[in-house]
Design goal:
about 260 residues; alpha+beta; five-stranded antiparallel β-sheet; four-stranded antiparallel β-sheet; 14 strands; about 25% strand; globular
Length: about 260
Amino acid sequence: MIELRTPTQIEQMRPAGRFVASVIQALSEKADVGVNLLELDELAHQMIKDAGAESCYIDYHPSFGASPFGKVLCTSVNDAVLHGLPHDYTLQDGDLLSVDFAASVDGWVSDSALSVVVGTPREEDLRLIEVTERALAAGIAAARAGNRLGDISHAIGSVAHEAGLSVNLQFGGHGVGRTMHGEPHVANDGRPGRGLKLRPGLVIAIEPWFLHTTDEIVFDPDGWTIRSADGSRGAHAEHTVAITSGDPLVLTARD
């Protein structure tokens, strides 16, 4: 069921957005050569505790997961692009790291993701991150009352196709509210003018993710970590966005 939030409820969602943004920012600053993925998870865990927030991930167990997630953060490295389960891995020079984090504050959820290069970057990785961020911005710009859900998807996909990238449609954005994942699904490619009409009060996570040379994916044995089928690297970006009567409101905007 698709739920619309009142202006008062959207105001109540702001603290969750600010908190998630602060954690994503802290993680991007912490990520460096020699830092273990478990250290990043522990930083996010401590920030949740300090803020009196609740993790959306630790007990999360959808059908595709081999077990409850058990961590509070997704860390996807290099050819991993989504749902990376933090494990005992020390970041190396040149690694492409995506961090994805969602939490609940006072019963309201926000969700956000960011990709960074650790140490010496490859030009193709920087370009992939830039395209992904540009696609996110295009999707947000299309998230206006009166438009259709397909307008968001088309805006994202157009940026990808112009950059020569193919788009996987198995995973994408989603509704956000009292829970992390709800309706509607927000595909990362689509036809303009199609789908759900956007109305004030709809809150969605818009999250493009792309791979260098494929749109095919495989799962690790943990049932969580999603990798490119050909070993190419991936980038991921995400914001939680509220549709208003005016401009889109990015609840997870970072300073």
